[in-house]
Amino acid sequence: MRIRWPRRVFAQVLLVQVVLTTGVITLATGLFLAPLSSQLDQQAMRQALSIAQTTAATPGLAHDLVSTRPSVTGPVQEEAERIRRATGALYIVVMDTRGVRWSHTDVTQIGRHVSTDPSVALSGREIMQIDRGTLGRSARAKVPLHGAGGRIVGAVSVGIAYDSVRERLLATVPVLLLYAGAALGVGVVAALLVSRRLQRRTHGLAFADISALLDEREAMLHGIREGVVALDAQGRVRLLNDEAQRLLGLGPDASGRPLDEVLPPGRTTDVLAGRVAGTDLLTVSGSRVLVANRMPTGDGGAVATLRDRTELERLGRELDSTHGLLEALRAQDHEHANRLHTLLGLLELGLYDEAVDFVGEVADAQRASAEQVAERVRDPLVSALLVGKSAIAAERGASLSVSTATLLPDRVVDPRDLVTVLGNLIDNALDAARSLVEVELRAEGTTVVLRVSDDGPGVPPEARERIFAEGWTTKRSPAHRGRGLGLALVRRLAERYGGMARVTARAGGGAVFTVVLPEALAGADLVSTAAADAAPSGGAR
User: Fold this and answer.
1) Domain containing 35: what range?
2) Would you say residue 202 has pLDDT above 80?
3) What is the pTM of this model?
């Protein structure tokens, strides 16, 4: 008759646990009983050795051995019997270097030679063995007895009855079998309870159903376009889908490791670890802007979801830039209207020479301002940004000036990164400035150094690090996006280049933001080579 394997998970687990418990207890009992005799023998021999060593170390025993004769009432016999009664040993024999007994449980043996070879102990070595002597089979030990100056004057032999050891071994067998039976019963009950709990947890599903559910979950997690990070109660990464690996810049080896170990310190790590509470929290990972939500689980862990908001944030910043451009155009339109009204008045009054002079002055001023920026900043995108921000600053009643130390060649590797950094710094400076914002751009080899200073209230020393954290801001957020990301992106860009971003105090009041971007400029030799490659080649026809 063929035994059918149960289909339900709990029944399979119960059967396997009962079989395993029975096998383990049987094996453990056998393995315990097999070496028990040897262990008890070793224990008895070590006990005999300890008694022998203690007897040999008794003060005056070696002196009594060499200064008296073997006697039933002698000091050696009395001391040996006192120690034997105190320790429960079978016998304690003290012998001289000839092997003659000076003490023995059977007083008739005193003065006679020992029945076993004492040469090992008399040579200075200790020995343990199971042997048979005049008092029967015993676990015995022999140690040398040292006199004055360390000279061996005899030996001490101690025995413990071996028959009592064997009786102890046999007496333990019923107890062991009782414990084994009790352990088997407890194991069966525990297996039943575990199986019942497993049945409730699995809702009575079969292994095939659980396997199908797991496959579906894996396909869903790795197919959705949201990052999913699952953490256990100890803060270790339990699950990481493909999108989360892409957004956080992690590999599959991050699973099983603590979150603080796989991610650098910062807001992203704090949000995922639950040290920052809230919903739809904005954070920056690398150059990506993420929206994070965290939900605790019943086992003390948590599941966090991440959405990529980089494109939306970029669109928001472009909307800000467009809004700023509209403000600049409106300001210029207002200014041009005032100038046209002035020009019209001069023409109506017949002051034609004055009108010509007025038009020339306005045109020269505009041209001089733009030419000054273009002369010092050779990259067209960066210079255009500075000209546009100058108009916005003028509309706000502030002055945006370019430092005389500014000199940026047309060798910028990625002008968009430079525009992002400079635009964020100027926007923050214009928000804080009273009347003055100054920009300095310098090239040091292939490194770009940016400094944007303002005459605003400045940044307190205790906030100079927090100001670069994601979400930290003192301004009211606009409707279309959150604030507190501009300076965080500036620092992340600087760190991506291997540089740094910091804020210090400005002499006379205000703040100075300094950003260093190594390798932001192409080398002069690379630029020359690229220009030569791009030039049309000439030749004779």
Assistant:
1) 12-168
2) no
3) 0.43
